[in-house]
Amino acid sequence: MAEASKKESENIKVFIRLKPLVSPEQPSNISSFGDIFLEVCRGNVAKVFQYNKILDGNATQMDVYENVASSLVDKVLKGYNGTIFAYGQSGTGKTFTIFGDNQSKGIIPNVFLHIFKQISLAKETSSYLVTVTFMEIYNEQIRDLLNNNKKKLEIRERADLGVYVKHLTGINVESIEQVYDIISNGTKNRALGATNLNQHSSRSHAIFTIYLEAKHQDGSTNIGKLNLVDLAGSERVSKSLATGDCLKEAVNINLSLSTLGKVILALIEKNAHIPYRNSKLTRLLQDSLGGTSLTSMIATISLSQANIEETVSTLKYADVAQHVKNSVKKNESNKSVLKDFEDKIKMLQEELEKLNSNPVKKKTSKVDIQLEEIENNKKMLQNQLLSLQSKILIGGENLLEKAQLQNELLHYRASKINVLDTSQKQLEETLEAKIQEKSKFERQSMSLLEQDALLDIQIEEAERKICEANEKLFKNETKYQKEISELLLKNKRLAKEQGEADFIINKTIPKAYLETIKSKIVWDEEFNKHALKDVAYCGNNMRRIDMDFARKEVKVPLKNPYKAYPKRND
Ligand SMILES: Nc1ncnc2c1ncn2[C@@H]1O[C@H](COP(=O)(O)OP(=O)(O)OP(=O)(O)O)[C@@H](O)[C@H]1O
């Protein structure tokens, strides 16, 4: 009988991982012995549990991988389905175990390192296709973690595919770096919340699935699938102090986990009806619980005395789960995506060949257009071909070294880009300096132009002022000319009058009298004219009677009747 049709009964394997105590946690009385036994003492009562393996607080991520996942991955590479799920109270290390953190890789990254290592050891004639999906079940709704459109996805079932999620994104993985990106992007999309027990608590059940197809030289194919399930915290609602939306979450989490418990019990009791359909989680994990899958459970527990109730509850749940028997069977599905890919590649290669061997005879403009179309088609086909070919991993290819090489290349490119960036920056700085210089020069020439314009205005103003002054000068000159000619005329007239007066005087007044009269002439400041001191000399003794003198009754002294004008201070 062919290996593919063989069915092996295999129990769910259960591993217990103890989370190391964190200060100020007080230790509970739990101790492991012989690697597989765990003794829990409460008061005077001691209970011993037995599991496949106890991984104590000192167990490293690699210890966990070697014990829980390694042999399972080897089986998946051979065409089996497998499931590893982490179950336990919130904060006990389920996410840490399945995904790990930045410092220590959890099961999923180690699975890929394992797979890539196996591919590198395989013959060149073997080809592989590794595809992943990543989803969460939150409040009984399925969400695609690799496509954050937040659409609720539906479960479907088909005879050839079994139970599957419609429209779930599948990514073909080519390198370990790609895996890290997928984990980190998907994890960011996951529903998180802070509970009393964990600041970054996963409030959903996450299912990371790896589909692995291997095709060998003899034409045989192995199609395996590995589910890695990080369940939400199993604690009782009261323990997480959940209220409101958190309470709804906690109720839904409990619904899935209690359905999981019921399914497990129903399987152990060999009931006719197994309530898989009562929750999305059990529906999707149907094949892993009592189905054909190889299933392992890792139950994470706290060693703190404060969590002893939850720890015992987890241990009991795990104890029951290990009694579930699966009928493990290698996949026989003919639905090979790898084969589809290879067929498509072949078809594309043939089309390309046809295009290459189809010479165009006559050269016309119509032919040119056709040629261009053919070239475009060729490019498109080549791209499709390359994309498909890159997804298929070939045996013997060291994807880890390739990843390392790619990493180095990336670093090299990054440093090149850095150099380019620096010189571009320098060029930009030079350009900026030139622009500054130019605008400074423009500003300067602008200010020179402005100064020039200002000078023009000042010159115009000065010219206008000169013009005005000239006009004024001209006006004044004319005025002075007029005045001078008037003065000359006046002078002439005065000279004539003087001449006439001299003539009259010389002809009428004897020379001897004239000298006497001249000596009697005085200048009267008050009346601003000449007067004669002794009027009798000229035969005129009239005197002017001043009204003021009259009013003041100033008496003109009679003893000197010739003095016509008495002095004021007399
Ligand atoms: N074995 C361990 N060794 C060291 N640190 C651990 C271990 N297990 C868990 N931790 C740390 O404890 C914290 C909680 O762990 P984690 O988030 O994995 O718990 P969880 O069980 O997934 O919780 P939840 O159900 O709330 O999501 C993390 O900081 C993690 O790094």
TrEMBL record:
Stretches of the chain forming a coiled coil according to its record: 331-391
Annotated ATP binding sites: G88, Q89, S90, G91, T92, G93, K94, T95
Pfam families: Kinesin
InterPro entries on file: Kinesin-like_fam, Kinesin_motor_CS, Kinesin_motor_dom, Kinesin_motor_dom_sf, P-loop_NTPase
Limits of the Kinesin motor domain: 11-324
GO cellular component: microtubule
Keywords: ATP-binding, Coiled coil, Cytoplasm, Cytoskeleton, Microtubule, Motor protein, Nucleotide-binding
Subcellular location: Cytoplasm, Cytoskeleton
Gene Ontology terms describing biological process: microtubule-based movement; mitotic cell cycle
Molecular function in Gene Ontology: ATP binding; microtubule binding; microtubule motor activity
Primary location class: cytoplasm
Superkingdom field: Eukaryota
Family to which this protein belongs: Belongs to the TRAFAC class myosin-kinesin ATPase superfamily. Kinesin family.
UniProt protein name: Kinesin-like protein
